[in-house]
């Protein structure tokens, strides 16, 4: 494979600074993500976004630039379709209001140190017209030997979901800290987790809507899960 970045419609969402009146999409990690990747393996780096426009969106994207190291092996996926290399453009299916999506960049450095950035223009068409966002993922080889992965987490399970009062969090991995964000990117809850067992968060005071749970494990890896507050 040559060059992977995944623009795929999924269920995972938005935490970023944006104006609800002027933007259709919110970005969980922000529009411009910068991470370190290991020299070995085939790490996955996700950049999640969410349709907060209140209406359906037709999405397509266009590559603005790609400065990843030529000798690296990397690929791009668009709405579940993966390509060899990062093509000039791609398109995905309609995002309904509330749907989520992500870019996923997979890079095999083959042991070659370096850094580079992929810049993508995300073009959204709605009944109100066309809007364009520019987002980017910058990667640099690390020296610490710690794997960096941002993805949907399997380390925790949330119950009930939707929830009215008390959210039960079952910790199946080594999650240390969880943070809860609303769709405006504001952190509304932060809690330390016991390394095993069950914890609870009182969500009674939260407004009804969709929330994102960000997890951080003992190695610093980050994951995301979502729940609905009734």
What's the short version?
This protein is mainly β.
Describe the fold and architecture:
The chain is mostly beta strands. It has 2 domains: 4-141, Sandwich (Immunoglobulin-like); 153-229, Sandwich (Immunoglobulin-like). It has no helices and 19 strands. It has strands at residues 4-10, 25-27, 32-37, 44-51, 57-66, 73-78, 81-83, 89-95, 100-108, 115-126, 129-141, 150-152, 156-159, 166-171, 175-181, 187-192, 197-202, 209-217, 222-229. The strands form 4 sheets. Strands 1, 2, 4, 6, 7 and 9 form a 6-stranded mixed β-sheet that branches. Strands 3-11-10-5-8 form a 5-stranded mixed β-sheet, with no helix packed on it.
Itemize the secondary structure elements and their pairings.
Layout: E1 4-10, E2 25-27, E3 32-37, E4 44-51, E5 57-66, E6 73-78, E7 81-83, E8 89-95, E9 100-108, E10 115-126, E11 129-141, E12 150-152, E13 156-159, E14 166-171, E15 175-181, E16 187-192, E17 197-202, E18 209-217, E19 222-229
Largest sheet: 6 strands, mixed
CATH class of the largest domain: Mainly Beta
* Level-2 CATH architecture of the largest domain: Sandwich
Output mean pLDDT. 77
Describe this protein with a few key phrases.
6-stranded mixed beta sheet; mainly beta; Immunoglobulin-like; 230 residues; 2 domains; disordered N terminus
């Amino acid at each position: 494979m040559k060059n992977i970045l995944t623009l795929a419609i999924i269920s995972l969402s938005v935490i970023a600074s944006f104006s609800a009146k002027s933007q259709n999409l919110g970005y969980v990690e922000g529009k411009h993500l910068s991470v370190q990747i290991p020299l070995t393996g085939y790490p996955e780096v996700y950049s999640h976004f969410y349709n907060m426009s209140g209406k359906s969106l037709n999405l397509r994207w266009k590559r603005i630039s790609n400065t990843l190291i030529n000798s690296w092996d990397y690929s791009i996926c668009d709405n579940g379709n993966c390509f060899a290399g990062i093509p000039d453009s791609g398109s995905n299916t309609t995002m309904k209001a509330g749907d989520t999506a992500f870019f996923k960049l997979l890079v095999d450095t083959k042991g070659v140190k370096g850094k580079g950035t992929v810049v993508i223009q995300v073009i959204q068409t709605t009944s109100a017209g066309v809007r364009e966002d520019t987002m980017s993922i910058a990667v640099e080889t690390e020296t610490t030997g710690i794997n960096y992965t941002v993805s949907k987490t399997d380390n925790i399970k949330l119950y009930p979901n939707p929830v009215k009062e008390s959210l039960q969090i079952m910790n199946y991995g080594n999650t240390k800290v969880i943070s809860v964000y609303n769709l405006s990117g504001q952190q509304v809850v932060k809690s330390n987790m016991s390394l095993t067992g069950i914890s609870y968060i009182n969500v009674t005071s939260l407004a009804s809507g969709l929330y994102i749970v960000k997890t951080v494990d003992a190695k610093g890896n980050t994951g995301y899960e979502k729940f609905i507050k009734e």
